[in-house]
Amino acid sequence: MRDHPRAGKSTGKVMSAQDLRSSSTLQFRPRIEVESYGRRLTKVAEETMVCAMGLFDSNRKHSSPNGGAPRLHIGSGNKRLEGWVNIDLLPLPGVDVVADVTQGLDYRDCEVVFAEHFLEHLAVDDALNFLLECHRVLAPGGWLRLSTPNLDWVWSTHYRVEAPEEEKRVMAMRLNRAFHGWGHRFLWNRQVLGEALEACGFDQVHWCTYGESDLAVFQGLERHETYADDPGLTHVLIVEGRKSAAQPGRLDKLRARLNDEFLNHLDG
Ligand SMILES: C[S@@+](CC[C@H](N)C(=O)[O-])C[C@H]1O[C@@H](n2cnc3c(N)ncnc32)[C@H](O)[C@@H]1O
């Protein structure tokens, strides 16, 4: 088991380029509904173009590009990391594997998992399942690093109850944009994210700063735009945790609280 330096010592619907090439998504479907036909055509055109440009290598599907234990970069977008398996829902340039990771991760014995500005794009129950999947696919003692917008920062920089009327009109929109914009589904604070990681079986959970880590493998990874932050109130939460024993009791409690306080209220 690998210790943190500071510590006392599905089947997933994974699709490689080959899958995409032979997938029915690339074949003409005469009975496709008219309203979705335009969207489908655009998607097919995008996928075909990406494949034709040779941006995928199907052999990378299950293995690490450097031949060692896989290092997974989830929701990589166009921020490719060399030596990592770059996984995204969209076939963007630089993505190695196109997959919806809410359907599971088709890996095992991974060294590390990294996801920047990704977790907030999952519904909170999918996010918990994703953390459990990360836990499952990591080798014993493997590490996870996440970066996600800080709810404390969003709240305190986007809204002031005592602001003048005109300002509050704009603030109301900006705060809602932070919650709903860019496909965001759930914003996290330290308390809930820390609890979720521990409930999903991670220990040595600790908070980091942009680009910095005591683990060499995580140093200098963040690519997303950043701001000059107040150290006491960073705009993102960056957290690392080590795979440890599963915590079914804690997970049940967290799920129950999420249901009571949030999920059961979503549909009115
Ligand atoms: C805000 S972007 C972040 C991209 C990059 N990591 C960065 O920091 O700039 C979120 C990415 O997550 C991907 N994503 C969202 N849901 C996903 C899912 N269920 N499975 C895989 N990728 C997903 C999106 O396609 C998008 O590229």
Short description:
The chain has helices at 17-22, 34-52, 124-137, 151-158, 165-180, 190-199, 248-261, and strands spanning 13-15, 71-74, 85-88, 97-100, 110-116, 138-149, 202-208, 236-243. The protein is an alpha/beta fold and 268 residues long. The chain folds into 2 domains: 17-55; 61-150 and 183-265, Vaccinia Virus protein VP39 (Rossmann fold, 3-Layer(aba) Sandwich), CATH 3.40.50.
SSE topology sketch:
Elements: E1 13-15, H1 17-22, H2 34-52, E2 71-74, E3 85-88, E4 97-100, E5 110-116, H3 124-137, E6 138-149, H4 151-158, H5 165-180, H6 190-199, E7 202-208, E8 236-243, H7 248-261
Parallel strand pairs: 2-3, 2-5, 3-4, 5-6
Antiparallel strand pairs: 1-4, 6-8, 7-8
The structure holds S-adenosylmethionine (SAM).
S-adenosylmethionine is lined by residues 75-77, 79, 88-90, 100-102, 116-118, 121, 223-224.
Report on the structure:
The relative contact order is 0.13. Helix content is 32%, strand content 18%. Helix 6 (190-199) crosses helix 7 (248-261). The longest helix is centred in the N-terminal third of the chain and has 19 residues, at 34-52. It folds into two domains: 17-55; 61-150 and 183-265, Vaccinia Virus protein VP39 (Rossmann fold), CATH 3.40.50. Helix 3 links the parallel strand 5 (110-116) and strand 6 (138-149). The termini are far apart. It is α/β, with parallel strands linked by helices and 268 residues long. The chain contains seven helices and eight strands, in the order βααββββαβαααββα.
